[in-house]
Amino acid sequence: MASIKLNFRPSSRPEKMGTLYFSVTHRRQTKTLFIGHRIFPEEWNRQTAFIDVTGTPERRAQLRMMASQLEWIRKQITAIIAEYAHSMLEYDVEDIVASYRRLPPCPTWLVFISQEHDRLVSLGRVGTAKTYHAAMANFREFRKDEDIAIDALDGDVMKRFERWMQAKGLKPNSCSRYLCTLRTLYRKAASQGYTTEKPIFRHVFTGIVKTGKRAISEEDIRKIQRLDLPQRSPVAFVRHLFLLIFFLQGISFIDLAYLKKSDIREGLLRYSRKKTGQVIAVRWEPVMQEIVDCYAARTRQSPYLLPILTEGEGTERKRYERMERLVNYHLKQIGRMAGLKIPLTTYVARHSWASSMNKLTGNVQLVSQGLGHERLNTTQVYLANIDEGALAEANRQLINRVLENTCPCDSYSKTGNSWQNYKNILKYNLFRKKIFTEFPKSVKRLLICLTNRFSFALIRI
Length: 461
Known about the structure:
Blueprint: E1 3-9, E2 18-26, E3 29-39, E4 44-45, E5 50-51, H1 57-87, H2 93-101, H3 109-122, H4 126-142, H5 155-168, H6 172-191, H7 218-226, H8 234-247, H9 253-257, E6 264-265, E7 268-272, E8 279-283, H10 286-293, H11 316-337, H12 346-361, H13 364-371, H14 376-382, H15 388-402, H16 418-432, H17 434-437, H18 441-460
Antiparallel strand pairs: 1-2, 2-3, 4-5, 6-7, 7-8
């Protein structure tokens, strides 16, 4: 069977770098495979026949990168040899080297993410490209600008990356989002043949932690609607956008921004979600048209339904990002004016529609369809947590149902501690009366005292 060995050829001048190369041997034939890597003589370990990572921090980073690439090349050639051996076909050393040279060059992780980012930008998928760029920036910061071969990624690297993000103060869902993005990119790299997919994300958290309530009640929506705001002011415009998001089944802000007048036909608004491409249909109600009519003059020369992308300088994407920041800034002002306890954002309108519709219908499938989610698990995140007061009231009703024809003292008898049992019966009956809960504390104490005296008198009789 063929073999492979890494060798170092020093330069004729000691101060110069030498050359690294692989020797592939099969049936006493040897082929030299130059790989373009050069190191100093002191960086070569003769005992291990591999690189010694030494020197300055910058040089150490270069050598680690080189080492991971050499391991990738060794794995590729070894896999080629194994494939030829299992094929039962005749082959020679030239076939092995030729098969390796047909492979794509060894990619590095950060370079691969950058290429995927640029590809998405060219396709117009700017939102996903931004997500890739944010994940790459965090991983680059974690690695201190040191790249790594894709095949050198393992579970330990991802676990250390997760701990680094946690130490940095990122919330669990933020850590999970970055790790999920990297997992998507890793699978893309594996599908393109750059590595063999391994379960390197098995021991990091890539789920969703249920966060604090991001939805507001219908009464809070009415408060926002009733606020006395200056007409034609930016804050009044932002309020209209918030209400439109709620009325349009929790439409995301980017989809709202890109709505066109031609999307409304025969009393229906049909649009494709920017995120998934899914087509959503919403019945066009009069209240929606009233809001749109307020800004008809500002969109007369534009195909867009609302003046979100039509005003300002820069590219369309820059105008959208600028408007998104402005809208969320004014929404926080509106939230404070309405006396809300949570910061108001465009996502609050989306979550609020989901929670209100779930309360109205109890149909999670319907809510998921309205939001344009592909999975019910995603919809569950949008639904508000069960209110603690509602849970307590439901529990009280359950207890009252169970104790409807009995009390905690059914073991009452005339023997033993019977006077205590009888006293408990009287106290329980008093406490069950709703009117008792409305008494001041002083009156409650008096009633309890009288109950104790009365029960003691009955026992003596």
